[in-house]
Amino acid sequence: MAGQRSLADSLRWMAEGGKTFSAALAGLPDDRLDRPTALTGWTGRHLVAHVAANADALVNLAHWARTGEERPMYTSFEQRDADIQAGAVRSPAELRSWAAASAEQLDRRLSELDERQWSRPVRTAQGRTVPATEIAWLRAREVMVHAVDLGAGVGFGDLPADFLTALIDDITAKRSGAGDGPALTLTATDARDTWTVAGASERAGDPAEVTGTLAELAAYLSGRAPGPGDRPAPPLPRWL
């Protein structure tokens, strides 16, 4: 594990990721939104709807942090999925407008939070109780990774190295906590960082050693590649 990320880091990555996603989307012709993405079963329309709806959901958490009034991200996973499906049939112009407006709204709501409100506990869509500072990280992760998923020429290698390190920290911690996959020892060839992932209890044995660049490790751990540099590595269960 490379280290802890700060709120300032997360806000910086959120801003940079938002610009990266917006630029990738702006460069994507409307007809390309009808094509499949790297996410199984999702077209570009689904992906843009998801990113737009995510910003709306995080506005709910920002409201919770500011007022103390509980406001979950989504009423249910079923409603979340239904909203994405409904959003995916909007016109390209409507989708682009929604993505931009929801991102701007989230930026405004987060800018209103003071130090005390940033530390207020809120609950993620996965049911984790976290300080509101995590809202910025959740959004940074969303826009950075999905900028790659759009298939508009952005790769993991185009994302900031310190963000990739934080992303690998985040994913390895989640995979270790879930304990439902292989045990791994991961080494970055372009940084002095190593990570371990605890494997499932029934899979006793030495961890598999996986090496690659930060970008390659992030792509593998997030399920976007079968292994670093597309070299074979132990298959992983779903990340999120």
Automatic annotation (TrEMBL):
All residue ranges annotated as the MDMPI C-terminal domain in the record: 158-230
Keyword Lyase: no
Span of domain Mycothiol-dependent maleylpyruvate isomerase metal-binding: 18-150
Alphabetized UniProt keyword annotations: Isomerase
Entry-linked SUPFAM superfamilies: DinB/YfiT-like putative metalloenzymes, SCP-like
Signal peptide interval: none
Coiled coil: none
Pfam family, one: MDMPI_C
GO molecular function: isomerase activity
NCBIfam families per the UniProt record, alphabetical: maleylpyruvate isomerase family mycothiol-dependent enzyme
Protein name as catalogued: Mycothiol-dependent maleylpyruvate isomerase NagL
The encoding gene: nagL
